[in-house]
């Protein structure tokens, strides 16, 4: 069945108060729920409480046990006819947390019991109207064996606890804030706490706790630091302070995604909490900081103001991603953060937007909401907020967010409410801008510069087109804010950065006072999530890659320079490689540039990104062309790579931006040095691998070695395995590195690894490190035999029986068949059909595979 946005109706019944009583046990947990329910409006509809995989052992209304014929189940939901406007409804159910392989609802992970309710997991715990516009006050009592589960946590504040006979104990937690049930959480287990405190701007003291297994306690400091920084940042930048007396975070090993913002009790995938130099890369450290911030920021953008229905998901996710991106930029480098975020957007969201699963930021319909936790909702959603912030300017944007938070505090709101607050608070008309929420697909902007020597004027002609997407054949022009500067090639200067608003299909902007044709720098800072096509020459791009004062535009010019050469080669044209090598040389020898920025800029566009630039993707030709250019850049600048690699070696580990930048550049230099084909390349990589005092350098060396065939490759993989076999998060890297390797045998290696004793479908991190990475390895996955497709489909089919949500996330790579030649396309479709033909296939995978075939 398909759920449509237009069918939204306010709830028939409200649930102002919820009392939950958990008798916890991994094999058999009993949940008694008492709901106060009130009729909403004038109707005589029965009460409908969603349920999934549970049956009521008893149902009482106002204290009276109901007979079997006074309630019934309908598609899992409990239906009760109630005579009056207010009642108390009590249900009792039994669950088996350790039998819950979907990791939704109440489940067991590494000896803990924990919950995940967003989006629709609460109905797997108890009967409840499981929709985000039902806001309730919760009181939770838990009891459990005290030795196995000494720590009992839930949302809100701890109220009371005590011991019980037979080695059991109990605790009660009350959450004074109204919340939707998707924010409910509890955790029980043997946990150690990194405890700290934070004093809010109004002087309230908050107890902070990060709860992990005792052995992991030493790896929680970075997360705690990030949490305190996030709390201070949200006060300073948005004027929002924390509202409860305690804030707890728990790390669990088995988790379907990154983390969850449950009120006062965030639950995290341990990979976004645990970090130390021995096991975490700088990217991991940044991931911890960003996700801790993200979940914390949800306390306002998500919890205090939540979503009316799941079509509004981007209201909280897009806005919160925007907030965490800006926080991370403030903690480190704005330039580098923007480059990283755009790379993520292009790799994930642009692909989604150009394929069969394209959907608007505010979707119109879905089968399974879990499938809509997408790059479009999150990352494109964040770009929409960013564009509004840009158009408004910092002060008016803040006025808009103040209005939004104040007006909707304690409410379940819509994307439209957010836009209205921006319009009223910021004083701007966003009528046309709203199309960004409605129309799927990535706009293409064609930008042509022309010059008239007589009037000494330059004209920039901008034309926008939007490709059709499923269900949307005709599109209206979008409002596209393009930060632009025109460079005078003679002086190397421009006259200022202007915000051009492209609102029509085609528009021209004329600038006077240009004796020669200027070089346009367009979409600076990536001001709009669009694809820009220009008539700039390779020389123009080389000029911008050396002179543009907007770091993103400078990076972009270099990338475009490389893309042009590579796409030209793949098409069989003679290309001017010297321009690229010169531009790389200029960049790596520029003493004024930040090493982290240099490392980002000189990196070749990924094989997948190159594929996106072509109508039909030829994975082998792309790989060959990119590999050859990499070898040329490596060999052409070999002494420089050696020099950089030697001088970026640090004496002692530090997380300072300078130290992180040095590691990033050192790894890039190593990569080019090995790619150059230099005899001693693998040996140098092996020395870095062996001597590094941090995972950033060790994993990069391993990754570089994994691409080629050398004795060092096998030795390093063995050493890495033996050193980290006992540490799941680090062993994930061993799987991931091999699945990502640009090595001719990767498909077969991944097949072997899928039968390795340490591989398991039960742990989503492990599945993603092997199969998620493999599906993102274009050259390997699209092996012309089709064996890569078969391997992934086998995994999806097996995993769907255990964990449909994580299985469904692996389907989209198979859905890109239209972009491949007929033989590969047919093989991909055949695998999608084979998946769809499985008996008992989940709704999650059915929706993804079905749409992928259309
Ligand atoms: N709200 C969580 C976050 O911080 C993610 C929840 C994902 N849920 C899901 N069903 N995929 O982004
Ligand atoms: Zn989120």
UniProtKB/TrEMBL annotation:
Quote any Pfam family the record assigns.
DUF3458_C
Keyword match Magnesium: no
Its lineage reads: Bacteria, Pseudomonadati, Pseudomonadota, Alphaproteobacteria, Sphingomonadales
- Catalytic activity annotation: Release of an N-terminal amino acid, Xaa-|-Yaa- from a peptide, amide or arylamide. Xaa is preferably Ala, but may be most amino acids including Pro (slow action). When a terminal hydrophobic residue is followed by a prolyl residue, the two may be released as an intact Xaa-Pro dipeptide
Name the Gene3D superfamilies for this protein: 2.60.40.1840, 3.30.2010.30, Neutral Protease Domain 2 (1.10.390.10), Peptidase M1, alanyl aminopeptidase, C-terminal domain (1.25.50.10), tricorn interacting facor f3 domain (2.60.40.1730)
Q: Which residues form the Peptidase M1 alanyl aminopeptidase Ig-like fold domain?
A: 441-534
Q: Which CDD domains match?
A: M1_APN (cd09600)
Peptidase M1 alanyl aminopeptidase C-terminal domain spans which residues?
A: 538-854
What is any one GO biological process for this UniProt entry? proteolysis
Organism this protein belongs to: Sphingobium cupriresistens LL01
Q: What is its EC number?
A: 3.4.11.2
Enzyme class, spelled out = hydrolase
Q: What is this protein called?
A: Aminopeptidase N
Describe the family membership recorded for this protein in Swiss-Prot or TrEMBL. Belongs to the peptidase M1 family.
In this protein, which residues make up the domain named Peptidase M1 membrane alanine aminopeptidase? Answer: 223-435
- Cofactor annotation: Zn(2+)
Q: Which InterPro entries match?
A: Aminopeptidase_N-like_N, Aminopeptidase_N-like_N_sf, PepN_Ig-like_sf, Peptidase_M1, Peptidase_M1_dom, Peptidase_M1_pepN, Peptidase_M1_pepN_C, Peptidase_M1_pepN_C_sf
Identify the coding gene.
Answer: pepN
User: Domain Aminopeptidase N-like N-terminal, which positions?
Assistant: 78-183
Q: What are the UniProt keywords, alphabetically? A: Aminopeptidase, Hydrolase, Metal-binding, Metalloprotease, Protease, Zinc
The record's listing under PANTHER family reads:
PUROMYCIN-SENSITIVE AMINOPEPTIDASE
Q: Extract one GO molecular function annotation from the record.
A: alanyl aminopeptidase activity
